[in-house]
Specification:
Blueprint (H helix, E strand, L loop, with lengths): L35 H8 L17 E7 L4 H6 L5 H5 L4 H4 L4 E2 L6 H10 L3 H4 L5 E3 L6 E3 L9 H4 L5 H7 L3 E6 L7 H6 L4 E4 L3 H12 L5 E7 L1 H9 L4 H18 L6 E6 L5 E2 L7 E3 L4 H4 L2 E7 L2 E6 L4 H12 L3 E5 H6 L9 H4 L5 E5 L4 E3 L5 H4 L3 E2 L5 H4 E2 L2 E4 L1
Parallel strand pairs: 1-7, 1-8, 5-6, 5-7, 10-15
Antiparallel strand pairs: 2-17, 3-4, 8-18, 9-16, 11-12, 12-14, 13-14
Helix pairs in contact: 10-12, 11-12
């Protein structure tokens, strides 16, 4: 069949770029990770909070178990490896059987800050894997916290755990000891007591003990190894499936130990997609002169990029990135992305300059890698960050005692 031609020019029509407004914006305010803890502590009577996720029922003792990389679609696709998790799918989001959304970008530092502060990325300010610090002009890695930046300057808001503790709630975090004093923990998850344990089984047991430690309790526990297996081997690997089987057993172990008047919520910071290792699916910005033209810094990660232009080149960079990538990525200018609500309803003044002059979010199973600047990240099989269902949708599975 012949291709349609343009009446004006007589050559085949060019495919239309993806409209930024067509990106599925996270459910900020009613069904995102930022809405979870405010809803839970509102049910416990902590002043200053209101329930945002309307489907949830209050409980005196609440535990949030966040499994890094446990996307909604990945659970649905692996009922044999995760029979207990699959059996809980109907309980998600207060028995509606629906997921919630991570927030944009769908990446660990951003999501953990959203969970712990109860605020969207545009407010807490951890808007990606790496973002530009407007004061220094350097890229700031918000997961590794490099270069060093004063944590409370970078993210000044109190955490929900801190406010709950001040209101008399027994607040506790149970995680790996390596996270006890990290800046990310300080700005996102601090408040109450921290309990460091190496094995997942120990964490489940201690989380149950901490739940029983107060008449009203708020407990957070975390498991990262599933995400690590996905990045290294992909979600279509035996290593990843083995980790999922372990996660399934850990959730069951914790659920079977819940004290009276408790609710356990199993959620995640993001899902994941496997990106094939070929030039069609991995676009190397370091080897593409067109995409590099006018770019001063490349932030974010492969599927959610912040692009910082040389002063005066912002419009040209946006035009070029849309022309080159517009069929595979949602590409927006900073103000357009903000207006569309990609980072939440509002963006604080201190956060504005951290957002790229151009923001690119993957629509297809592709990634914008940087082989020279990001050699380790370029080697990853599983990736995340964008607004596709595989990355954005996360469970909110519920078990009550």
């Amino acid at each position: 069949m012949a291709q349609p031609t343009s009446v004006a020019h007589g050559w085949p029509d060019e495919p239309e770029p993806l409209a930024p407004a067509s990106a599925p914006v996270p459910e900020y305010g009613s069904g995102s990770l930022a809405d979870l803890l405010p809803t839970l502590v509102a049910g416990q009577g902590v002043p200053g909070f209101e329930a945002r996720i309307a489907e949830l029922t209050p409980a005196d003792r609440v535990c949030v178990f966040l499994v890094d990389g446990l996307g909604w679609e990945q659970i649905k696709a692996h009922p044999d490896e995760a029979p207990y998790l699959a059996s809980l799918l109907a309980t998600s989001r207060g028995g509606t059987g629906r997921p919630i959304t991570a927030g944009f970008p769908a990446t660990t530092a951003t999501s953990l800050a959203s969970v712990g502060t109860g605020r969207a990325p545009g407010t807490h300010g951890l808007g990606g894997y790496t973002v530009r610090d407007p004061r220094s002009g350097e890229l700031m890695n918000q997961l590794k916290w490099r270069p060093w930046t004063a944590p409370k300057v970078w993210q000044p808001y109190p955490t929900v755990f801190q406010l709950a503790h001040e209101a008399g709630i027994h607040a506790a975090q149970v995680s790996s000891p390596i996270f006890a004093q990290t800046p990310l923990t300080q700005v996102a998850l601090s408040g109450g007591t921290f309990h460091g344990h190496l094995s997942g089984e120990e964490r489940m047991d201690v989380a149950a003990e901490q739940l029983a430690g107060g008449d009203r309790s708020l407990v957070y526990t975390y498991y990262s190894e599933l995400d690590g297996a996905g990045h290294r081997f992909g979600i279509d690997s035996d290593a990843w499936r083995g980790q999922l089987m372990l996660v399934d057993r850990l959730v069951r172990r914790l659920a079977e130990q819940l004290p009276a008047r408790s609710a356990l919520y199993v959620t995640a910071d993001h899902g994941m997609v496997d990106v094939p290792f070929d030039e069609e699916h991995r676009i190397d910005v370091d080897e593409d002169w067109e995409l590099r033209a006018g770019v001063a810094l490349l932030g974010g990660e492969g599927r959610a990029r912040h692009v910082y232009a040389v002063p005066g080149a912002e419009a040209d960079v946006l035009t070029c990135w849309r022309e080159v990538l517009g069929e595979q990525f949602w590409v927006a200018g900073r103000d357009e992305a903000i207006e569309l609500g990609w980072f939440g309803d509002t963006v604080d003044e201190r956060v504005y300059g951290r957002i790229g002059d151009v923001v690119a979010a993957a629509h297809e199973d592709v990634a914008l890698v940087a082989s020279v600047g990001e050699p380790l990240e370029t080697q990853m099989t599983g990736m995340h960050g964008s607004m596709t269902p595989a990355e954005q949708l996360v469970p909110l599975l519920e078990v009550r005692s």
